[in-house]
Specification:
binds zinc ion, 2 domains, 10 helices, single chain, 312 residues, globular, alpha+beta
């Protein structure tokens, strides 16, 4: 029996029967029933929903053995994590190369950036690349590239604020204690923005509960605490938190909606509003892809690397 029929036969007994008809309990009865009469309305939807629910349950069960994979799955499942997948590449800022898209897709699926990697990283961490395929996003040897990723997101936000008619300064120095990433003026409002990007499957985050946006919320709280008392009351503080798998923190999402509202209210109707969420989302994945690709080069060039493939 082909795999699909095997899967279907395993879920048939658990499919709920709508009141209008009795769902067959086996493949054989399915064919004998509907060979004689047409299928009832919504049968395909009922079967697909049950099939997908069964797949999701078995996948969640398989994640129980891997805290890193579980956190990656929860983060990548958040609805704000997929703007880079749903936008059309109509501008350079929304365009990814084939290599970048491949690496970003592998990250989203929690797969290693390459099928041919050593078993461990050159940093000699406890993480095995097979059990933590996204290790390069938390590797201490690639810390400088994560800083570059942070700075590129800061500059993109600055550029987007300028495009919608605001004024923005990167790393303003006239606050005696705080050193936020951006000082932004949007007509009648002023903001201090500090960007933070967290990697939910990093070993340092595995102590946190496996909940949606847990790293973003933790980062927001930490930023608010850090800047507490050092920001003039006339400014709104925005802890702009992102997770590497793409999810926006609650405050960042609200800020992006605010930018979107301003762009729609004040830009001439002849100008299309800039794709704010998609721009940030695409840039984040492009930067992730760059870090992952440099990680591959790093471990392959290490003289101490044993080099059996992760793939048997
Ligand atoms: Zn490493």
């Amino acid at each position: 029996m082909i795999p699909l029929l095997v899967s279907l036969s395993s879920i048939f007994p658990s499919i709920p029967s709508p009141s209008s008809f009795s769902t067959p309990r086996s493949i054989e009865s399915f064919w004998s029933t509907f060979a004689q009469s047409p299928p009832p309305p919504r049968l395909q939807r009922i079967l697909t929903a049950s099939f997908e629910s069964s797949l999701l349950s078995s996948h969640k069960a398989s994640l129980a053995a891997s805290p890193a994979a579980l956190r990656a799955f929860i983060s990548a499942s958040h609805h704000t994590s997929r703007h880079w997948l749903s936008c059309l590449p109509t501008a350079p800022a929304l365009t990814m190369s084939s290599s970048e898209f491949s690496l970003a897709s592998r990250l989203r699926l929690f797969l290693p950036p390459s099928d041919a990697l050593p078993l461990s990283c050159s940093c000699h961490s406890d993480s095995r690349l097979a059990s933590d395929p996204a290790h390069f996003l938390s590797c201490r040897l690639l810390k400088d590239l994560r800083r570059v990723r942070h700075d590129r997101v800061v500059r993109l936000l600055s550029s987007l604020i300028h495009r919608i008619g605001g004024v923005c300064q990167v790393e303003p120095s006239h606050f005696p204690v705080a050193r936020p990433d951006l000082l932004a003026f949007l007509f009648d409002q002023s903001f201090l923005v500090d960007v933070v990007i967290s990697h939910p499957s990093a070993p340092s985050h595995l102590v946190r509960s496996p909940l949606p946006l847990i790293c973003n919320k933790y980062a927001e709280t930490r930023k608010v605490s850090r800047y507490s008392g050092s920001i003039p009351p006339s400014f709104d503080f925005v802890p702009f938190a992102l997770e590497t798998f793409g999810a926006f923190g609650p405050v960042a999402a609200i800020f992006m909606r605010k930018l979107d509202a301003v762009s729609r209210a004040f830009l001439p109707s002849s100008l299309p509003p800039p794709p704010l969420l998609a721009s940030v989302s695409v840039l984040l994945q492009k930067c992730n892809a760059f870090i992952l690709s440099r990680g591959v080069v790093l471990v392959r060039s290490s003289p101490s690397s044993s080099f059996p493939s992760l793939v048997p």
